């Protein structure tokens, strides 16, 4: 399976540089795996396509200010540290420029915060230990920058627009962007209709946004990301499946969490690290439908939805979205695939 199989033409002007004025006023493309015709709606129309007893599963991760700018203690050279995974007492990070980040290097960010490079990782990153005076989260909030994807060139006026309204568990280097379209009022409308709302956690990191750099996608290795599923969520999902209702994942990170934990169609409470890579040929165990944004060409996210809906059907839908001038990527429009 070739990387070029997942390419498509996208005019640069369709890459959304800022969020829609109102979260749920984004456009919504309805893609049915059974019907040929696409439907064009708005995100606030989503309840029309859900049924009482269905369960929406959200990723409640919260984006942290993961980018830190510091300097080497011995030379004063500027260096950037990008937080990925909290692994007990230490952090997996990306460091730029990497050649300045040898083992033993001390990087200072302020009088309150520094880190020491302990080791290298197999993905080109580093493992570091932070040293700080005070509460780490408070210091990070003060010194860190919220990272936006590199294709977003404009400054974000309201940083809360890069958080979902239900964000709770701190730890993500990027937002689970399919959830950015939901509002408190839309969630209330869904509950009133009888749709269940359940939450999992996957801290978005390198596994989600790392580019594929091999021609044969089967050679691509996902980077691990932390996930957690509570007993309450596992029970809600199992009951939903037993009733014959649908489990609908909000975003590819929720999909990957559910499919990581699923065993023969049954969910259990579990946490750990996932490296699951979903591409065409994968047999889904739990997810019956999904809400998702429009993804980058040649990305693992595009491969995931191609596995769910069929590559040709997905690429045809993307072509129509381009023709209809949909907005793409993190701050762009959405799809509902059923």
Which descriptors apply to this entry?
single chain; 338 residues; alpha/beta; QueA-like; Thrombin, subunit H
Write the layout of secondary structure elements.
Elements: E1 27-31, E2 39-42, E3 55-59, E4 61-63, E5 67-72, E6 78-87, E7 90-96, E8 106-108, E9 113-120, E10 126-132, H1 136-143, E11 169-172, H2 184-193, E12 196-202, H3 206-209, E13 225-229, H4 231-243, E14 247-250, H5 252-261, E15 270-274, E16 289-293, H6 300-309, H7 311-323, E17 334-337
Parallel strand pairs: 1-17, 3-12, 3-14, 4-11, 14-16
Antiparallel strand pairs: 1-2, 5-6, 5-8, 6-7, 7-10, 8-9, 9-10, 12-13, 13-15, 16-17
Give the % helix: 10-25%
Identify the CATH architecture of the largest domain.
3-Layer(aba) Sandwich
**Classification by helices and strands:** alpha/beta
Distance between the termini: 25 Å
Number of distinct beta strands:
17
Domain count: 2
Residue ranges: pLDDT <50 for 5 or more in a row?
none
């Amino acid at each position: 399976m070739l990387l070029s199989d997942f390419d498509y033409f996208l005019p640069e002007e369709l890459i959304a540089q800022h969020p829609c004025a109102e979260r749920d006023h984004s456009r919504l493309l309805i893609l049915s795996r059974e019907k040929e015709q696409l439907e064009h709606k708005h995100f606030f129309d989503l309840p029309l396509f859900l049924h009482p007893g269905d369960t929406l599963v959200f990723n409640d991760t919260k984006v942290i200010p993961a980018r830190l700018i510091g300097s080497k203690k011995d030379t004063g050279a500027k260096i950037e540290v990008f937080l990925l995974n909290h692994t007990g007492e230490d952090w997996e990070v990306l460091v730029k420029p990497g050649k300045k980040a040898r083992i033993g290097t001390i990087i200072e960010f302020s009088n309150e915060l520094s880190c020491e490079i302990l080791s290298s990782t197999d993905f080109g990153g580093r493992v570091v230990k932070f040293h700080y005076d005070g509460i780490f989260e408070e210091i990070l909030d003060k010194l860190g920058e919220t990272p936006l994807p590199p294709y977003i060139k404009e400054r974000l006026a309201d940083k809360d627009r890069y958080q979902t309204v239900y964000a709770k568990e701190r730890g993500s280097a990027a937002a689970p962007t399919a959830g950015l379209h939901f509002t408190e009022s839309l969630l209330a409308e869904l509950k009133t209709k009888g749709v269940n709302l359940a939450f999992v956690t996957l801290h978005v990191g390198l596994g989600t946004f790392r580019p594929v750099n091999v021609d044969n996608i089967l050679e691509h290795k996902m980077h691990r990301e932390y996930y957690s599923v509570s007993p309450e969520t596992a029970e809600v999902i199992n009951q939903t499946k037993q009733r014959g209702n649908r489990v609908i994942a909000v975003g590819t990170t929720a999909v990957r969490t559910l499919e990581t934990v699923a065993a023969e169609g049954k969910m259990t409470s579990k946490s750990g690290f996932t490296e699951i890579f979903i591409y065409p040929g994968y047999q889904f165990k739990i997810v019956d439908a999904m809400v998702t944004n429009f993804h980058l060409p040649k990305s693992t996210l595009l491969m995931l939805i191609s596995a769910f809906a069929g590559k040709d059907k997905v690429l045809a839908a993307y072509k129509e979205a381009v023709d209809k001038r949909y907005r793409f990527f993190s701050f762009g429009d959405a799809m509902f695939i059923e």
